[in-house]
Design a protein that fits this description.
Length: about 110
Amino acid sequence: MYQYEIREISKSAFDSIQDENERRKRLTELDRDIEAELKEVIANKMQDIVDNLNRHGHSLKRNISLEDIDETDFCERHNDRTCGFRVDSTVTISSGYNGASDCDYQAKE
């Protein structure tokens, strides 16, 4: 599933990239790989949660529109146009590396 072998995303691999644009490109690709893996896990878990809510009287169904197909957006419709109860998740993946981001991060000891 990962686009890069572990050796290619190791600290030494990132340190060896001299071109800032290449480093940013690698980080963007890594973000996409992480997002793809998390999306699958989250979609499966969200389905479990929705199934449990539906066993307790709700009638949540996947909310799919032509513009946005999202595997974690569920809605309980009151009529054809309004969504009464809604459950969704949003995940943001962010990575950075020395010289490739404007991060002013201080690690917690």
